[in-house]
Amino acid sequence: MGEASGGSIYGDAEARRRRTLDAAAALLDEGGYSALTIRSVAQRSGTSTGLIYQYFADKQDIFMALLDENIVESTRAVAALPRDRGVAALIAAIIDESARRWGRLGRMSQIWRDAERPADAERESLRAVHDSGNRYDEAVLEAVTDAAAKEGRVLRDEAAVLPFLLSGMQGVAASIVNNWASYLDSDEFAQFSAAALTRAITRTDPAP
């Protein structure tokens, strides 16, 4: 009986937390960060402000939890991409995935950069976001390294390779989503960019 009750309580707690995050995500989509307040989240989720404070310290903790979820989902998506079609095809697929998620994750990342303060560095939620971001970077690096090996290539041994690749992919994804190159076919643009990035970050494997 005790175990059943515990499971029910846990499930209810998780459901309330989920409703809180879903409500916060809707508010962000509709009105941006300024629309995200504990009161507005409580109203949207149909709960009390006191209950929300049981799970989150403030609205920034809610925001960080949403950002972390989106980064984790992006990491899983990258890890699931096939590696046997070559580096350019992999990069094009990551660009496509990034563009698909950019509507929320891109805006959230920009809000985070604008709102982040040195005093927040010790927040557990902020550390979680940083850790998830690092895991995303590692997933991209592993995927690209594997794809390169399958076509007899290696990544250039330079520290700038990963930051260059990440910024390049994010820039192309942002351009597609914001229609900054409306005169170009988005698929062709992504493929051209992926091929250019591949040439920049890889070389033929010198090993026999």
Automatic annotation (TrEMBL):
* Source organism superkingdom: Bacteria
Q: Which residue ranges run through the membrane? A: none
- DNA bind region: 37-56
Listed A to Z, the keywords are: DNA-binding, Transcription, Transcription regulation
**SUPFAM superfamilies (alphabetical):** Homeodomain-like (SSF46689)
Q: InterPro entries annotated for this entry?
A: Homeodomain-like_sf (IPR009057), HTH-type_TetR-like_transc_reg (IPR050109), HTH_TetR (IPR001647)
Q: Name one GO molecular function term.
A: DNA-binding transcription factor activity
Any idea where the HTH tetR-type domain is? 14-74
Signal as UniProt keyword: no
Transcription regulation recorded as keyword? yes
Q: What is this protein called?
A: Transcriptional regulator, TetR family
Give the source lineage, highest ranks first.
Bacteria, Bacillati, Actinomycetota, Actinomycetes, Mycobacteriales
